[in-house]
Amino acid sequence: MDGPREAKMKICLRAVLVWVALGFNLPAFAQQKDVVDAQIVEQLNALGKKTNEALNNGDASALAALYTEDAVLVTGTGPIYGREAIEKYFVRLFQHIRFTNHVGKSDQYSPHIIGSGRD
Predict the structure, then answer these.
(1) Whole-model pTM?
(2) Less packed terminus of the chain by CB within 10 Å, N or C?
(3) In angstroms, rounded to a whole number, what is the distance separating the alpha carbons of residues 80 and 63?
(4) Rounded to 5 degrees, what are φ and ψ at 80?
(5) How many CB atoms lie within 10 A of CB 86?
(6) For residue 116, is it within any domain?
(7) Least confident of 45-54, 86-95, 97-106
(8) How far are the Cα atoms of 8, 44, 47, 93, 102 from residue 97, in angstroms, in the given order?
(9) Quick one: 17 and 47 in the same domain?
(10) What CATH number has the domain bearing residue 78?
């Protein structure tokens, strides 16, 4: 049977092993915390492209289709609730404004993880 001294040594050994394992893995975790999944970036770029196309074509229906049914569009005149109301908003907007070469461009830091120091 193990005595108190052997039990204490086993606990210390386990603690050291955990500390060593974390020591090797923590730098990897630290490097990954600000990384955004490449697939998400690709999806956001595709969404931006669809938005640009809909704006340049004056297509309120295609633009509204990019929003969820319960979306809220915040404008300078107040919020607009729901996809149907958002489409009506863009129909009215396109009666007064025509986009000919709208190009949305994301920056190198977008998207980023909140709390990464760039928010």
Answers:
(1) 0.58
(2) N
(3) 14
(4) -120, 125
(5) 22
(6) no
(7) 97-106
(8) 76, 25, 22, 6, 12
(9) no
(10) 3.10.450.50
